[in-house]
Write a structure and sequence with these properties.
Layout: H1 12-51, H2 60-74, E1 84-88, E2 94-108, E3 111-124
Antiparallel strand pairs: 1-2, 2-3
Length: 125
């Protein structure tokens, strides 16, 4: 007679399933960590440009040069100059910095993850 008191714990197959799921989650997290850290770096760069007192009332070209310089110093790999733009806000003496990009990260064989990032800030008065 097989009772519940005789059945204790998981079988080896149960542990293998749990271990496989934990391994996949760990690998996914390790591959996504640098992508999200880079996004937070870019977000910080946009915030630095927004808070820079020298850029209050600056031209579009000056704001773009400040962005290019900071992105170059931060050594960001997945973002290039086409991934952010500076546009004039109608009726204001201000510009909007719009950041939008996506990153494809290979996971296993032909399986990849796509992450999209978007952030915007107003620069000026």
């Amino acid at each position: 007679m097989n009772t519940f008191s005789n059945q204790r714990g998981m079988t080896i197959w149960g542990w293998m399933v749990v271990g496989t799921m934990a391994g996949v989650l760990l690998i996914t997290g390790l591959k996504l960590f640098p992508v999200y850290m880079e996004y937070f770096t870019m977000k910080g760069i946009v915030d630095q440009v927004k808070d820079d007192p020298e850029l209050k009332g600056a031209t579009k070209d000056k704001i773009l040069m400040a962005m290019h310089r900071r992105v170059g110093l931060a050594d960001v790999k997945n973002v290039n100059t086409q991934d952010y733009e500076v546009t004039k806000i109608p009726g204001k003496n201000a510009y909007s910095i719009d950041l939008y990009y996506e990153v494809r990260t290979p996971l296993f064989a032909n399986l990849s993850m796509v992450t999209e990032f978007e952030y915007s800030q107003e620069v000026g008065e």
